[in-house]
């Protein structure tokens, strides 16, 4: 997924206008980039595995009257970068074609690259070769392709640029005769464009006619690929342990004796059960309809949906579109731990419902380096209460909601947070007792946060490696999550009952993709969960699956017997996901797992 943009003019492109587009496109990712521009009748393509702002400085545009480009999230290798060029067609594409592998058998073209975008160029080239009408080209592409397709299709032999999308993540504006497009409307507004329109059906713009082959060149600047090769080795997988400790568990839920601050009464029922207050008791839906009514717009989008691509945010989006009849923009924060599976599900859901997706991508290289530094510090002095520092980098999710509100002018944000995801043990292992009065998954109590930070600082003192350049990123992210006031902010599951069976059945109708290494549908698009749950299980004999299933028991959604059966499977080590995570942050698999396996257990076998 990336940000795409372009300027088509009768005069040389204004570099200041171009810089506005370049700067904004980097919000969606800066790990690779590409430009396509004209020099007379010649079409020149420049691609690089670094930021578009750097690439632009290296390119001599001279008197180019057409410049288009993209700034992209993670890619693996230069040959799979955009613009994709083949058979006289060039494509820049925002989105993911989730069924690209199956399309090749339906067209008379051979696959040459791994990137999904290639199939779009191949379909277009076949249409041109067959003499199909211009209007039929985007129609055929959208008919064959599943997932988000927001494209700029360059057809030099026909002298045409085709812009189209299936989810509205493409805008076209006019500025004194120049036609300017971008993945979002915000930069077009900044540039003073008029008549800004969201593009869905094909729009055709005249460009220079040329029969010459495009001049394509690639530049490398990154020392290592952000997506490394992932050879799965049986010898490594055997290192993963799955002990079966004989733990005393609550007679009502399934929490074990190793749960922090747990106590059992004379009937064997734990204090978490005895103090539990039902969470999954939604208020009348009519209240939500009244709350959102002032935000509805006759034209344009009317709400923002923070969107991870996970199970609950996907079902929340379904409810918002199908039940509330709102017109949302989804917002995704990518900090380097969103897996390809998560991105594909984002693409599926947004394409199917015709919903725009705005991505705010952090500096992936920097964020993963922060995780590496903190994980190395943790491995030197393992502490269950410090595991949460490995996921601290994602808390800027909350900060950028405000960014998107400002850029879109939309105030209302609707969250699809699972009300049963309360764990307690993550801070409990640090020394924070459970607050049974907590009403939300994310607590905003200032004193609770200060106590938490004090205890964490004490634990950090045992491994000085924690005091690295990631510290400000960690603290500022947690500040935005816990201390800043949230406005126009509602939880969809405060008004709709959370039901796992209904959710899974609904998502199946969207061909929502499951993970190959687990049967659960929870957290499968999260690159971090498999690793930290492995640590919790090996050391304490349980994971967040145990706390989640226990909450379902208390809500009357599941029997204790069924919960025990499910966690038996869900707590098994997920080798593929763990290996991906450790490779992504540059930590040796054997080294990390050996340290985890040697940590003293909180139980006896």
From TrEMBL:
Coiled coil: none annotated. SUPFAM superfamilies: Adenine nucleotide alpha hydrolases-like, N-terminal nucleophile aminohydrolases (Ntn hydrolases). Residues 2-210 form the Glutamine amidotransferase type-2 domain. Keywords: Glutamine amidotransferase, Transferase. GO terms for molecular function: glutamine-fructose-6-phosphate transaminase (isomerizing) activity. It comes from the Bacteria. Transmembrane segments: none annotated. InterPro entries: GATase_2_dom (IPR017932), Ntn_hydrolases_N (IPR029055), Rossmann-like_a/b/a_fold (IPR014729). It catalyses: D-fructose 6-phosphate + L-glutamine = D-glucosamine 6-phosphate + L-glutamate. Its EC number is 2.6.1.16. PANTHER family: GLUCOSAMINE--FRUCTOSE-6-PHOSPHATE AMINOTRANSFERASE, ISOMERIZING. This is glutamine--fructose-6-phosphate transaminase (isomerizing). It comes from Roseivirga echinicomitans.
């Amino acid at each position: 997924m990336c940000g795409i943009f372009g300027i088509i003019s009768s005069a040389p492109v204004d570099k200041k206008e171009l810089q506005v587009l370049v700067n904004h496109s980097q919000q969606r990712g800066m790990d690779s980039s590409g430009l396509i521009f004209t020099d007379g009748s010649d079409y020149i393509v420049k691609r690089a595995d670094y930021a578009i702002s750097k690439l632009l400085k290296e390119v001599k545009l001279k008197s180019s009257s057409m410049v288009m480009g993209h700034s992209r999230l993670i890619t693996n290798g230069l040959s799979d970068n955009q613009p994709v060029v083949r058979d006289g067609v060039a494509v820049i594409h925002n989105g993911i074609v989730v069924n690209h592998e199956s399309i090749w058998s339906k067209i008379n073209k051979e696959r040459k690259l791994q990137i999904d975008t290639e199939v779009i160029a191949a379909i277009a080239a076949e249409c041109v070769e067959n003499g199909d009408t211009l209007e039929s080209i985007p129609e055929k592409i959208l008919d064959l392709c599943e997932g988000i397709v927001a494209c700029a299709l360059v057809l030099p032999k026909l002298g045409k640029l085709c812009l189209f999308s299936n989810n509205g993540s493409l805008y076209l504006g006019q500025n004194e005769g120049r036609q300017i497009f971008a993945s979002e409307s915000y930069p077009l507004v900044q540039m003073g464009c008029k008549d800004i329109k969201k593009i869905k059906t094909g729009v055709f713009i005249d460009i220079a006619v040329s029969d010459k082959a495009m001049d394509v060149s690639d530049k490398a600047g990154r020392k290592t690929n952000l997506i490394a090769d992932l050879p799965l080795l049986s010898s490594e997988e055997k290192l993963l342990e799955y002990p079966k400790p004989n733990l005393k568990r609550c007679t009502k839920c399934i929490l074990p004796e190793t749960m922090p601050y747990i106590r059992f009464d004379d009937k064997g029922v734990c204090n978490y059960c005895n103090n539990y207050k039902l969470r999954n008791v939604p208020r009348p839906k009519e209240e939500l309809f009244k709350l959102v009514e002032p935000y509805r717009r006759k034209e344009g989008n009317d709400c923002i949906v923070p969107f991870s691509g996970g199970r609950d945010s996907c079902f929340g989006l379904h409810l918002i579109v199908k039940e509330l009849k709102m017109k949302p923009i989804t917002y995704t924060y990518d900090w380097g731990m969103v897996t390809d599976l998560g991105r594909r599900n984002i693409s599926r859901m947004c394409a199917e419902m015709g919903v725009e997706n705005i991505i705010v991508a952090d500096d992936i290289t920097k964020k993963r380096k922060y995780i590496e530094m903190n994980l190395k510090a943790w491995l030197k002095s393992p502490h269950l209460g410090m595991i949460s520092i490995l996921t601290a980098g994602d808390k800027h999710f909350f900060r950028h909601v405000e960014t998107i509100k400002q850029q879109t002018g939309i105030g209302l944000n609707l969250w699809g947070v699972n009300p049963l995801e309360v764990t307690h043990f993550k801070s409990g292992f640090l020394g924070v007792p459970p607050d049974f009065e907590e009403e939300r998954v994310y607590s905003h109590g200032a004193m609770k946060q200060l106590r938490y930070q004090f205890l964490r600082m004490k634990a950090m003192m045992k491994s000085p490696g924690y005091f690295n350049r990631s510290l400000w990123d960690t603290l500022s992210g947690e500040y935005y999550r816990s201390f800043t006031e949230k406005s126009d902010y509602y939880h969809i599951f405060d008004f709709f009952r959370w039901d796992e069976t209904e959710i899974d059945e609904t998502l199946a109708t969207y061909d929502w993709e499951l993970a190959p290494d687990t049967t659960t549908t929870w957290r499968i698009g999260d690159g971090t969960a498999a690793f930290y749950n492995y640590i919790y299980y090996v050391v304490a004999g349980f994971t967040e699956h145990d706390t989640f299933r226990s909450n379902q028991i208390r809500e009357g959604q599941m029997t204790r017997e069924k919960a025990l059966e499910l966690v038996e499977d869900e707590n098994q080590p997920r080798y593929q996901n763990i290996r991906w995570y450790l490779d992504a942050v540059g930590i040796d698999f054997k080294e990390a797992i050996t340290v985890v396996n040697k940590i003293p257990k909180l139980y006896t076998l």
